[in-house]
Fold these 4 entries.
Entry 1:
Amino acid sequence: MIRPLLLAAALIAVPADAQTAAPHVRAASFEQLGKPLPLPYDTAADADAQVAAARARALRGHKRLLIDLGGNWCLDCRLLAGVMDLPEMKPFVRRHFEVVTVDVGRFDKNAQIPARYGIAARLKGVPAVLIVDPKTNRLVNAGRETALSDARSLTPQALADWLAGWAA
């Protein structure tokens, strides 16, 4: 019998050319994350302006743009935010990505953001993580943007490893 976590890890495979190792995450399970979990999505924000500003910062900083599409109602979104907020992950994320969170409501807000990167259909799940090359404004992880939409089936380390697979 295949263990569920091993199966889930295989399903979120990172790119074959991934060269950046994730930091070791001390939290072995999500129960060890700080409580309450973060509420990362600003429901009143101007998503277009935020993404444009984050892309400009990513260009200046020679980082990839990470657009986190989700909602504060979503446990998997909050788990991802909790992992990125860990002391061992914060500097790693800051070094490799310019992160912007975009509230998609109940899949009824800000659909223009994923559409800009070729995702015209309704998102298949959240969080949907778009990794963008800020120089070309092209989606780097096409087809894998909803890989973390069942984050709770993974471990904090598996989330860290997935992010590291897309680091610039």
Entry 2:
Amino acid sequence: MWLATGGLGERLTADAAMLDPTLQAREALREAVDGDPSRGAALVDAVLEHGRIRPALTAGGPGERAESGDPAWGPAWLAARDYLRLPATAPDRIRRRAHAERVLHFFKTSRNGTRRRCSMAVRGNRAKASRHYARSRG
């Protein structure tokens, strides 16, 4: 769904060639959020060099089309581009998950910005799956 929303879903299927660009984008975004902002900016910019937005006229009116010289960079580029909206909107709402073992970050969407974790439905399912895996291994 995310690829389709960014205009890449119909043209791409995930494959091994996308792994390195995706890992580079993940590292760039991690550095931008948790590390040295200058280094993070340079790393994110390096990912953004692999694509561009092209204005387009569609049947529904004016629009934009994501373009990448190498399709393997499409999802990584889209992640970096979408990240740019978050600090522009509300940089103080980009947070690290409260659970120490989690490396994920999220964008706080609660009205007062006090949310500290993902939804209970997701979190609860992960906890159940983890307990099931531990039982089945033991």
Entry 3:
Amino acid sequence: MIVTWSAAVAAGAFVILVTGLLVGMRILLGRLAQVQQSAEAMQRDVARLGEELRGLVTPAEETIRTANRQLTNVNRLFEAAGEVGGTIKHTTSAVQSVTAVLADSVARHAERASTKRQIGEAFEWAELGIAAWQLWQSKRSAAASASADEAGHHAHVTAAFSESTSRDEGHAKNERSES
């Protein structure tokens, strides 16, 4: 009996052990099913996120292309601004050169005008001196000559003086027209 009881206890223990293993296996299978469902849900979420990312990649690519075009346009704008700066610098240089040439020309013209005025004044003084010399010569001749020639001599001096005066007036007209 003891053997029977021992065999029965051993059989009962075996049944309890097998039952515990079966229950543990069942729990493990349930958890494995949950893990599998979670994995499938994660796979679906990853696939959905992948689609969303693909949907975002296209606008991001377009945004990057637009930014690239704008940077290219800004680069061209800066290049154009640099060229405008160069053009302004060149124009400024040209204006300075023209101004320098113009200033030199004005200085030379003023010099010439001053010289022309001085020459004109010298001619006027020379003509006045010639008229005075002719007047003095005529008076000297008149003193040496008799009073009889005085009327003819006076006419000569008057003619010489009026000729000198008419040359002065002609010279003054020429000077005004040159100015």
Entry 4:
Amino acid sequence: MLTNCANHLHLFTEQTPSLSVTRIELFVIPALAVDSAGHRICLRLTSNQGFGWSELFASDTEDSIDLERWSDLLQSFIGSVPLPPLHHFQYDKTDEDGRILDLFASAVNHVLAQSADSSPYNSDLEESVLRQRSVSYISLD
């Protein structure tokens, strides 16, 4: 008896785990420490598995951060993201684009490390505080 091979194709294809990213937010906040002239850049990721956070520090002596470029790069991650994040993508973590890609990968890893029952209340409270303090805010969805 002959059967349709397409019905069994799923047995031979490798399923790649993924994360569904619905929103990415960037907060640029002045550094609070007296000896730290610069900004904290916080990334909040909203996904089907919860929230993820990551941040980096940009000193005032660095070249300016190109938020438009970062927005364009991050917009491409809205939707399904294969796990682990950026696994097959080679990039320099020290250059401008590499820093935002590393920030995104850290936020994804934070989502994966969180427990499924973590409360969104604390994340919403922190988001409110960050939005009040931020000098720049970007929301991508």
